[in-house]
Amino acid sequence: MKDIQLFIFDLDGVITDTAEYHYLAWKELCDDKGLLFDREVNERLRGVSRIDSIKIIMEHNKKDDIPETTLVEWATEKNERYKQLIQKVTPNDLLEGITDIFNKLKEKNIKIALGSASKNAKAVIKNLGIEEIFDFIGDGYSVDRSKPAPDLFLYVAKNLNISPEKCVVIEDAVAGIEAAKSAGMLGVAIGKKEDFTKADFVYNSVKDIDLDEVSK
Ligand code: B16
Ligand code: MG
Q1: Fewest CB atoms less than 10 Å from the CB: which of 73, 182, 209, 216?
Q2: CA 188 – CA 129 distance, rounded (Å)
C-alpha cells in the first residue's frame, strides 16, 4: 500500500472541459487576424500556457516574424473572449465521476489540490461551485515555468508540506504527465493508452479512474 496523502487535479480535461471554450476563443481571434486554426491545432494546446499556445498557432501558420508584443496583445484579446465564454460554466459542467472521486478522497482524509496552467482557473472553479473542495490551489499565476516543468506540482505539494512520492497527479495532457513524473509523483492520465507512455495509469475517462488501483 502506497502512503498517498495528496491528489493534484488538472482542471481543463479532468474536472471540466473548457477546451471547447478555448477553441472558440482562439478560433474567433484567428479568424479576425486571418490565421489558420482548427480542432487539431486546438488539441495541441491542451495543458499549454496561453503564450506558448499562441506560439504553437504561429508555428502552424509558418509565421516567425510577429513581434512578441503583438503576440501578447493577441493572446490578451483571446483571453477577453475566453473570459466571456466561461461565464456560462455551471456545476452541470463537472465531468462525470469527478464529484464521486472528491467524496471518496475526503472520506479517506486524502488532501485535494488543483494544479492547472490556467490563469482563469479560480473563476472556473467558482462557477463550477467547487471552491470549498480544495486544500490548495495552484494555477497559472503560481510558478514561472509551465508544464512539462515539474514546478507547479512541486509548488503545490510544498505548500501542503507533503513529499512528492506521496502525491498523485491526474492529467489529460502529455506535458502534464511529464511534469508529474519529473516531480517524482504518480501520473494518472485521462485519454488513450498509446498517447501516454510515461503515465503510471491511463483511463479512458474520469469516471473510469480506480482509486484503489492507483493507491495500491
Ligand atoms: P489560460 P489546464 C490549460 O488548462 C488549458 O488546457 C490550455 O488549453 C490553456 O492554454 C491553459 O490552461 C492556459 O489557460 O489562458 O486560461 O491561462 O489543463 O492546465 O487546467
Ligand atoms: Mg488539462
Answers
A1: 216
A2: 24
Atom of ligand 1 nearest to the CA of 121: 16
- Most ligand 1 atoms within 8 A of CB, residue of 11, 12, 44, 190 to mutate: 12
Are residues 104 and 204 located together in one domain of the fold? Answer: yes
Q: Is residue 216 over pLDDT 90?
A: no
Instruction: Give pLDDT tens digits for 33-59.
Output: 999 999 999 999 999 999 999 999 999
Beta-carbon contacts of 168 under 8 Å, excluding residues fewer than 6 positions away, are 4, 6, 7, 8, 185, 186, 188, 214, 215
Residue 205: its pLDDT value, please?
Answer: 96
User: What positions carry a catalytic annotation?
Assistant: 10, 12
Closest ligand by atom to 140 CA: 1
- What domain range includes position 126? 6-16+93-215
Residue 2 pLDDT = 81
Phi, psi for residue 131 in degrees, rounded to 5 = -55, -35
Domain CATH code at residue 183 = 3.40.50.1000
